[in-house]
Write a structure and sequence with these properties.
- This protein is α/β, with parallel strands linked by helices and 294 residues long.
- The protein is built from 10 helices and 10 strands.
- The chain has a 7-stranded mixed beta sheet with strand order 1-2-5-4-3-6-7, sandwiched between helices. A 3-stranded antiparallel beta sheet has the order 8-9-10, covered by helices on one side.
- Strand 3, helix 2 and strand 4 form a beta-alpha-beta unit.
- Helix 9 packs antiparallel against helix 10.
- The chain is globular, with a radius of gyration of 20 Å.
- The model has no long low-confidence stretch (mean pLDDT 97).
- Bound molecules: adenosine monophosphate (AMP).
- The site of adenosine monophosphate has 17 residues, from helix 2 and strand 6.
Amino acid sequence: VSIIMSNEPTQRALRLFTEGKALREFVDIMRREGCSIGFAPTMGALHAGHLSLIDAGRLECDVVVASVFVNPTQFAPHEDFDKYPRNLANDTALLASRGCDAVFAPRVGDMFPADFSTFVDVGPITRVLEGEYRPTHFRGVATVVLKLLQIVPADRAYFGRKDYQQTLVIRKMVDDLNVSAEVRVCPIVREADGLAMSSRNAYLSPDERRQAPALYRSLRLASELAAGGERRVSVIDSKMRGLLQQTGGIEVQYIAFVADGTVTPVDIISGPTTVALAAQLGKTRLIDNLRIGD
Ligand code: AMP
């Protein structure tokens, strides 16, 4: 266990664990002391979106644990596992500055040894939207989150609404498999120009970075149209596509209108609706979503 002291004397120390067993012992001791435990799983390359999960945990729990683990099982072979940004030294400094108590950074071979063979399939909600483009993604996500919650039996686990469908998959898994953690979902943190923060934004070329905020502008357009009384999804969808086409450089994979809290498509906006989209900008795939029709 290494202990990283933060710069500010008033801040707590951040403990770095690479072994699940040692982290579990730390968590068990804290629990015996009567502390509540918050847990935020991440893949690192931390930004303000991730840190908002730590802040939420700090407000609600006595002890906050984060994980930094680029999970190979949620990447398809052609995806960006190898080039995914990794910077544990920077991540630990950021976590310490936000008062995180422990970070778990396991080795791939410890989490997924060569003979690993048990996977969690959460079923139909994993096959649509993201699942159509990334058919094995959610099985990898559900499996690693369940493993992490076995190592860190948290009272509350924190996820970002940025990955809307992932929050539904995690809730379903937690519910179906009697995981005791309460799932907490935090709002999307955005750059000043509206682009949802993402570790993958680092891949964007300067031109792509200028084009990318159009994704959020298209979501805002959907929200404004709905607020102005437009209920037809087909009309809103085509206006969004028009805006994105004008920007150029953005290849839409899907724009989905679903009843908020579900992956069930709607044709007419008649209540809270989530507009979720995925697009390719050059080699970079970005997702975003917005709740409209409140
Ligand atoms: P990742 O490192 O991309 O796996 O993300 C780890 C957690 O941070 C997930 O629960 C994400 O939904 C959340 N997250 C990522 N980006 C954002 C953001 N811009 N705003 C809020 N949460 C985010």
